[in-house]
Design a protein that fits this description.
Elements: E1 2-4, H1 13-17, E2 23-26, E3 29-32, H2 38-42, E4 48-50, E5 56-58, H3 68-72, E6 79-81, E7 84-86, H4 94-98, E8 104-106, E9 111-114, E10 119-122, E11 135-142, H5 152-156, E12 162-166, H6 176-180, E13 186-187, E14 190-191, H7 201-205, E15 211-214, E16 217-220, E17 227-231, H8 237-241, E18 247-250, E19 253-256, H9 266-270, E20 277-279, E21 282-284, H10 292-296, E22 302-309, H11 322-326, E23 332-335, E24 338-341, H12 351-355, E25 371-378, H13 388-392, H14 414-418, E26 424-430, E27 433-436
Antiparallel strand pairs: 1-8, 2-3, 4-5, 6-7, 9-10, 11-22, 12-17, 13-14, 15-16, 18-19, 20-21, 23-24, 25-26, 26-27
C-alpha cells in the first residue's frame, strides 16, 4: 500500500489523479486505500482480484454492483458508480508520480493493516543477506561485426562447443577441404584437376555437403550463404541440472565425467543456446576454454575474456520484461519500480542481453534475437485507466484513448508488463521463441 507521510500539503493532486478513486482526505492527509483485501474476500462474484503489485483490481465484466465490497471496506473507500465498484487501490503508482512534495511512500512488505484489530502493523522481516556486488566468468566471445560465419572455429573445436547453423549444399568457405586435401589441390572454391587424385575425402567430410562428384569432376557449390555461429558461453546451467556430478567446474572450465553420467539428458534441456549433444553416449558441447578457436579465426573475431556484470541496466531499459520472461534461472525482476537481478543466482548466460530489444543490459551480448512479430490484446473491463501503458510505450504506439497503432507497435510488451489491471496481453515473437504475455502472478 501507499502511505502518506507528514510532508503532505493536501494539495489534492493525488486525489484528483487517482484513476480508481482510492484516495480520501482524512485527518489533514491524503489517505490511500490500505489494500487489506477485505473487498476481494467478500465479493460474491469474485470480481476483485489481487495483482502483481499487491493492489486490487475490479473485473467490471464480473462485477454486479451489489455493493457488498463497499459495506465491508473498513475505511469507506469503496462506492458503487455506474453499477461498478470504485475505491480499490491497484498500486499503479500514479499518486506517487504526481505528488509534488514526494509525500507518497510504497510500504508494501513493510506495513500492513490488520482488519480484525483495526491497526497498522509493522511486518517483521529478517535483514536481507548481503549478496554479491558483481558476477563474473571466463568465456569465449565472438564479435558479430567481425565474424563472417565461415565455420573455421567449428572445425577446430575439440569439444563440439561451436555449431554453425548453415544451409546445406552451399559452401561457407570454412577451409576444411583445403586443410585435409592430401595434394593441396583445393583453393576454395576452385579444385585443380591436375592435382586432385579423387580420394573424395573432401566430399565425405564437408560439414555442409557442399562438395560433390559431377561428370567425373569434384565440384564445390557456392551461392548465397545463410549461416550463423552458436557457441557455449560457459554458464552453469548444465552443471546445475546434473544431479550425478558428471558435470562440474575445474577452475574456470567445465569438466565432464562419463563414468558418472546416467544419460538423463537434463543438461541438453537447460542449455540456453542448445549446444549440448549426445554423441554416442558421450555428452559434448561445453567449452573447455582451450583457445583453439581464437587462433583459428581468420578475422580475429574470437576472444577469450572475463565478463563482469554488476546487475545494472542503462537508461534505454523500458521495463518490457522480456529478460524476466526468458531468464533460465528466473533471477530477474522487472516491474513499475524498475529492473533488479539476484546476482547470487545469475550465471551470466547472456540470455537477457540476447533478447533485450533496446540493448539496455550493460555488457556485450553473446548473441542477439530480434522481435519478428506478435499481437496485442486489450480488455477494457480490466483497465484501471492509470495510463501507465501510454507513458511507458517506447514508440508512442498507444493513444490517450487507449488505442494501439499496430503499424508503430514493436510488440516489446512494456505495456503488458507494467499494467496493474492485467488488461493488456502482448505476444512477442523472437525468431522461433514465443513469449505469450508477461507473468504477473496468480489472480486471487
Amino acid at each position: 500500500m501507499y502511505y502518506t507521510t507528514d510532508a503532505c500539503t493536501l494539495c489534492m493532486k493525488c486525489i484528483e489523479e487517482c484513476p480508481t478513486k482510492a484516495i480520501l482526505k482524512r485527518e489533514a492527509k491524503a489517505f490511500n486505500c490500505v489494500t487489506c483485501g477485505k473487498c476481494a474476500e467478500v465479493c460474491p462474484s469474485k470480481a476483485i482480484f489481487k495483482n502483481q503489485y499487491g493492489g486490487y483490481v475490479v473485473d467490471r465484466e464480473l462485477c454486479t454492483g451489489c455493493g457488498i465490497c463497499a459495506k465491508n471496506c473498513p475505511f469507506g473507500f469503496i462506492e458503487i458508480r455506474e453499477n461498478t465498484s470504485y475505491g480499490e487501490c491497484s498500486m499503479c503508482g500514479v499518486c506517487e508520480q504526481v505528488c509534488p512534495v514526494a509525500a507518497k511512500k510504497n510500504v508494501t512488505g513493510l506495513l500492513e493493516y490488520n482488519v480484525q484489530h483495526k491497526t497498522f502493523e509493522t511486518i517483521d522481516r529478517p535483514a536481507p543477506a548481503k549478496g554479491k556486488g558483481e558476477v563474473s566468468k571466463s568465456s569465449v566471445f565472438i564479435d558479430r561485426e567481425l565474424c563472417t560465419n565461415c565455420g573455421k572455429c567449428r572445425n577446430i573445436c575439440p569439444a563440439h562447443a561451436i555449431i554453425l547453423d548453415a544451409k546445406q549444399g552451399i559452401c561457407t568457405e570454412c577451409g576444411l577441404c583445403q586443410e585435409i586435401c592430401p595434394t593441396n589441390a583445393i583453393t576454395v572454391p576452385e579444385i585443380s584437376d591436375k592435382r586432385c587424385i579423387r580420394c573424395y575425402r573432401c566430399v565425405r567430410e564437408c560439414p555442409v555437403d557442399a562438395i560433390s562428384m559431377e561428370d567425373g569432376r569434384i565440384t564445390i557449390h557456392t551461392g548465397e550463404r545463410e549461416a550463423h555461429v552458436r557457441y557455449c558461453v560457459n554458464c552453469n546451467n548444465c552443471i546445475d541440472a546434473c544431479n550425478y556430478g558428471a558435470l562440474a567446474r575445474k577452475g574456470p572450465r567445465i569438466q565432464y565425467r562419463d563414468d558418472l553420467c546416467t544419460g538423463c539428458n537434463l543438461c541438453l534441456m537447460v542449455c540456453p543456446y542448445d549446444m549440448r549433444q549426445d554423441d554416442y553416449g558421450i555428452y559434448q558441447g561445453h567449452c573447455i576454454l582451450c583457445g583453439r578457436c581464437v587462433k583459428a579465426c581468420p578475422e580475429n573475431a574470437i576472444t577469450l575474456k572475463k565478463t563482469r556484470w554488476s546487475g545494472t541496466v542503462t537508461e534505454a531499459c523500458v521495463r518490457c520484461g522480456l529478460c524476466k520472461e526468458l531468464c533460465p534461472r528466473q533471477c530477474i525482476t522487472v516491474d513499475k519500480d524498475g529492473f533488479s537481478v539476484d546476482l547470487d543466482i545469475c550465471d551470466l548466460c547472456g540470455v537477457c542481453a540476447m533478447v533485450c530489444p533496446f540493448d539496455a543490459i550493460d555488457y556485450a551480448a553473446h548473441d542477439k534475437s530480434a522481435i519478428t512479430g506478435g499481437s496485442v490484446t486489450y480488455d477494457p473491463n480490466l483497465c484501471v485507466s492509470c495510463m501507465q501503458c501510454v507513458a511507458i510505450c517506447p514508440v508512442q504506439a498507444i493513444s490517450e484513448d487507449l488505442e494501439w497503432d499496430m503499424d508503430a507497435c514493436m510488440y516489446c510488451g512494456a505495456c503488458d508488463n507494467i499494467c496493474p489491471g492485467h488488461a493488456v496481453t502482448v505476444r512477442t515473437e523472437l525468431g522461433d521463441v514465443l513469449v505469450d504475455g508477461r507473468t504477473k502472478g496468480v489472480r486471487k
